[in-house]
Design brief:
By secondary structure, this protein is an alpha/beta fold. It has helices at residues 12-23, 35-45, 61-68, 85-93, 106-116, 176-187, 195-203, 211-224, and strands spanning 3-8, 27-32, 49-53, 75-80, 98-101, 141-143, 149-153, 156-159, 164-167, 170-172, 193-194, 234-237, 241-244. The longest helix has 14 residues, at 211-224.
Length: 248
């Protein structure tokens, strides 16, 4: 099946540029000119990718991102004419996966999209198909119902194929980037992961600003219940990176 993308952009020239660039990458592109229509299209079409202008009329891009994030596992790229660091951080904290500043470089857009889709995801809808026997030959790994790959670490249970996570029996809603960060850590639980290496593993690129890692890791830790002075799962190795806290 071809990939689909929703471009939420009120500037016609920018929308056409994005449509052309994504179409050349094999996406079926639908355009929305404002936030309300964008939310409706994402809800109806369930796209694989969303590009989202921050400065939309009416509902701005940050609010649109907050509204669609619980509804979709699509990759979300924020697009803005304001590239200051605080704008990037705010955009990522709403659940966006990446950030592009105007004027848009189609070469950079294609590179970032290719990097995100280098590790394709699969989903299943039936919740009762997910929790199965997670026993396997290797500690913390196994096959659940329907042959899904399962990862476990203490109170964490991850169905890799269904893209679902449980913590102490309660399901945790993670963005695609947070999910990739968690599974990367869980596959090598005793390893310390430097930020630059996580950029390579999760974003598929050796270049970029490592504060993206810090923002997404902070969101992941908060969702898993980690607090300052009360680390349950992910600990910071000062001056190096991150690793999973040993399971008790």
């Amino acid at each position: 099946m071809p990939r689909s993308a929703v471009v939420i952009e009120d500037d016609a020239d920018t929308a056409s540029l994005l449509e052309l660039a994504l179409s050349s990458q094999g996406f079926e592109v639908t355009i929305a000119a404002d936030g309300q229509d964008g939310v409706a299209l994402v809800t109806a079409l369930r796209p694989d990718l969303v590009t989202l202008d921050v400065g939309l009329p009416g509902i701005d891009g940050l609010e649109v991102c907050r509204r669609i994030r619980p509804l979709t596992d699509a990759y979300v790229i924020m697009v803005t004419s304001q590239a200051e660091e605080i704008d990037r951080l705010i955009g990522l904290e709403t659940g966006a996966d990446d950030y592009l500043a105007k004027p848009i470089s189609t070469r950079e857009l294609k590179a970032r999209v290719n990097a995100m889709f280098r590790r394709p995801r699969r989903f299943v809808a039936a919740a009762d198909d997910v929790l199965g026997d997670a026993s396997g030959d290797a500690p913390g790994r196994g096959l659940g119902a329907e042959g899904h790959q399962m990862l476990t670490h203490g109170d964490l249970l991850v169905d890799v194929d269904a893209h679902r996570v449980w913590c102490a029996g309660a399901e945790v809603d993670l963005t695609p980037t947070e999910f990739r960060l968690l599974t990367t850590l869980m596959r090598s639980p005793s390893r310390v992961w430097p930020r630059a290496l996580l950029m390579q593993e999760v974003w598929g690129q050796s270049w970029g600003e490592t504060h993206h890692v810090e923002v997404h890791m902070g969101n992941l830790r908060r969702k898993l219940g980690d607090r300052r002075g009360q680390v349950r799962f992910v600990e910071t190795v000062r001056g190096v990176g991150y690793r999973l806290l040993a399971a008790s």
